Amino acid sequence: MRVLLAGGIAGVAAIALAGGCAAQQFQALEPKLELRNAAQQLADAQQAGFTLTVTGNPKDLVAAAGPGADAESVGKLFASSVTLAYDKGGPGADDDKSSLAATVDGVTGTEVRFVDGLVYAKAPVSELAAKFGATPAEVKELSGGTSEFDAFFAGKWVSIDTKSLGAGAATPTTGPDQQKALAEFTTSATNLLEGADIERDSADDKHLIVTSSTAEAYAEAKRFATAVEPSLAAQFKKAPADKPIVLDLWIDKGKLTAAELNVLQFAEGATGRVAARVEVGTPQAIEAPTGATELDLSTMPYFGGGASLSELEKLGE
């Protein structure tokens, strides 16, 4: 009887120990599974939107940059943001749509949309010109002075046929080269996450702390660059000193909502926190604006007309 009792106790202890080990393994693995699922869900999304900002204390970035850092320019960076969005539409790339909206040093209203083979754009030209020390008249010289561009300089929507932009211009569709680059980038990002340590913040269960290293990041950057353009391999001559890299991610209800990378962790002796932050927003419809004025790029600089290169250089001085 005692033997049976002892055996039972030993069996229960073994099961409890095994269960505890399994629980610990699952606890360590669970954040990585959650992140993998959230990343896959985002990759499969037909629509998505991202806002890029810089957060933290501008003084910390100025201090890290050292003597000669332009505090005014740094302040403008913190007052700016970019929002990118896309809509894959149905099968194929012909009906793909995308948009880019920017806030420049607190000035909103700059936006570009790619819809049905046309580029739509608008910007608060007068306000932006004033921010960078130019007058509207000086900026208008870039158009060759033709009245056709009055709508754009008045901050209204204009449209441009992508066929007039040339083969190398951005379009709403994705060619083979861009598709390959996106696929390779996804592979590198996946490799980095798979090899990283991922922990859940005990104070915030939506916050995941991902720790990788400069060596791993360098290896993946080299792999990515070489896969996209083999000639770039020669640029990777010496790996940097190995040190930890921390990436902060937030996942809510299975969806990736934000990511932050503290850029000061790459600066020796830097203190504080200045982060490049990406927020994943709710997808919005991307439509062609009504009443856009069609532009003829043949009168624009670099497209066969308008101001010369020397005039542009004088304007920038």
Automatic annotation (TrEMBL):
<protein>
    <recommendedName>
        <fullName>Lipoprotein</fullName>
    </recommendedName>
</protein>
<keyword id="KW-0732">Signal</keyword>
<feature type="signal peptide">
    <location>
        <begin position="1"/>
        <end position="18"/>
    </location>
</feature>
